[in-house]
Netrin receptor UNC5
Amino acid sequence: MPALLGPVSRCGFSAALLVLWTVFAGFSRAGAEHAATATLPAAFSDLLPHFQVEPEDEYIVKNKPVTLTCRSTPATQIYFKCNGEWVHQDDHLIERTVDPATALPIMQVTIDITRQQVEKIFGLDQYWCQCVAWSTTGTQKSQKAYIRIAYLRKNFEEEPQGKEVALDQEVLLRCHPPEGVPQPEVEWQRNEDILNPESDPNFFVTADHNLIIRKARMADTGNYTCVAKNIVARRKSTSAAVLVYVNGGWSTWTTWSSCSAVCGRGWQKRSRSCTNPTPLNGGSSCEGQNIQKSVCVATCPVDGGWSEWSKWSACGADCSMWRTRECTQPSPGTGGKDCQGLDLQSLNCTSEQCPQSECTTYMKKKKKNRDCGAEDVALYVGVVAVALCLTLLLIVVVLVYRRKKEGLDADVADSSILTTGFQPMGIKPKNSHLLTIQPDLTTTTTSYQGTLRSRHDTTGKFSMTNGTLLDPLPNGSHTLHNGKLNPDPPEFVSRLSTQSYFKTLPRDVANASYGTFNFLGGRLTIPNTGISLLIPPEAIPRGKIYEIYLTVQRKEDLRLPLAGCQTLLGPVVSCGPPGVVLSRPVILSMDHCSDGCLDNWALRLKKQNYEGVWEDVLLMGEELVSEPYYCQLEAETCRLFSEQLGTFALVGESLHMGAAKRLRLVLFSDAYCSTLEYNIRVYCMDDTQEVFKEVMQMERQLGGRLIDEPHILLFKDSYHNLRLSIHDMPQAHWRSKLLAGYQEIPFYHIWNGSQRYLHCTFTLERLSLSTCELTCQLCVWQVEGEGQSFSLDFNIFMLMDSSASALAGPSAFQIPYLIRQKICSSLDAPCPNGADWRMLAQRLKLERHMSFFASKASPTSVILDLWEAQHFHSGNINQLAAVMADIGKQEAMIFLVSDGEC
């Protein structure tokens, strides 16, 4: 039958079908069920078959065969071909129906594929089947269906490990499921309950099936299991016990109790409890005392006491006199009792002291008149005294006023002299176009603070001679190399510092470039920063020679106004002098750290004016060719065409949360470690060369070394912080000294860009000085944001620099002195078979120094000196003994000499 199904020509196709129909017509009813040939009505004889059902990919589970189905209309034949060979007709099960809508005949065929067929012929992943349908017009092939044997290994490639973590600490549980076909799905269980990260955002499952608990809660304590499943089986990893513990914390101190003594020396105390929070699940208890005592002195109560009685008063008109006393000896205090008794006593006068006769009345009136006269005299005397005082005060005021007036006249004279030199004057220089700030001629007075010398100091004046912005070049010839003179850098910077436009610039020669240019132009470059200034030919007018500088400003020294979602995207660059007249624009190149998509940003170029105020001079995408500024933004570089020099900064304002800054993450560690502590510093900076250069210079001074290539992170405007954490340290050898499980850099510290670089330091502690290897993982991601998340794996091999700066005596050598003497006496003498110092030099791979060794009185001694210098830190004296034994000298046994014998 397969021979009848071979390819035939279009002309003989109908004849072949007729033969096939004649053959199949004689089959029995049972055989007809397997026949795959039919005739078509004449109305449909010109239609190609099309498939209503095509075979799909299938997986064989255990030993159960799979069934492939194919349905086509209209079709006269339909058969399966598996891996290029026709399936026998007896293996086909064919059904014929008619489409009620179109009256077209429908043929459906099914076959079964067993596990033995797949394994025996084509292995696990290569077995495929395809359906072929015929009609009177032509043939059609269905899609290929691949049949694979499904399986799932038993053993996980990596299982989660139990951990004990503090409250709110991040937890990372790793899981690498077993190999399987189809790819197994992974889910996590806690105490046999399935975890759903969508319902509980505290859980996060990474793309590589790891489980992250963002902040460990008490409810997160339990047994965690990684479950892998596919259509074959379901596998569970070993459970990892996660214990969330709480370290105890002290509550606030209570107020001090009252003093234990009512009077005199006593004690008072206050207490606190380890309940903020209470230690749980093995967390550490609070350290320190829960009760504090203090000495107190209670003031004793003082009872009041009467003072002495005053003298009796004179007898009054009512014939009575009185006296008083006060409760002041002592006064009652601190709860003491008041004085008991009367504080006023009165007594009647005697009859002799209180006469009631007329004479007595007369004498009283006379005395009263006399008293009134005395009161009038006293009044007059007081008025006279007041008048004298006023007169004296007036005299003093007049004298003081005269003296002050004389002093004021002198001051006014001096002030007029001082201000005369500062009256505004009309100055018309030879080259008026070089004046960038005109003097204010409307000012009539000058505010002055300081000394007279500072008023007349003219060192800071701007020289306008010869039409140049700097002092005129001295007469004589100058050799100009590529348009740049080679002045002494300190002298050049010192000279520029006297000019008004350079007073605020840093004198850091490493971050500045300067030169002298004429109409031929040139280029200024700050090495390793990506910052350069191209001065095209003819940009400087002919006949002019300018001294031009290029420098990087420190961001923290500038007050760059940033509002809303604005951020600094590159360095702040100054080029000048600002008043230089250019015939054509120069090109200032500097790095930027935006993602380069203008749809995400509104990019502005800011320029600092002469008053120090920042102004927007360009909006990217809306440049006008008539303006003095034009900008071209490349992937990592900004090219500014400018007809004016000055201080520039590129500022970006994010239009939505899809905008991102490129950050560069750089890792440094201690190059040498002689203590138990070891530091890893992770710098987060803008992805510009000038910041990276500065960090590298600083780390060289700190003695750090780069432990990994810099990595790029896209930091998005999502208002979320950047989090860094270290995981998977070997607990048997290392532990972290950080109290928290991670460190965070606030979003606004990065987005604001006012700081040149930010860094986190991870302080680790090794449990033994002999541990010299560290393998761990650093995770960096933007918390709750849409930023990238990636991991860095690194190995650190620390160099132990425990050598002292000065060593004397035997401690400076590895070979003891007596052993050294025996080796020299054994190898210095020539040996006929060559077993002497020459063979030692060859075995130590020092034969290129043979002539040098031979010129010395003891060649062996010189060889051993070189070996000591090369192998002081890492030398193996047993290896040297093996070399001696290989030479054939019995003196190799001398290496076993004890320290006492040496």
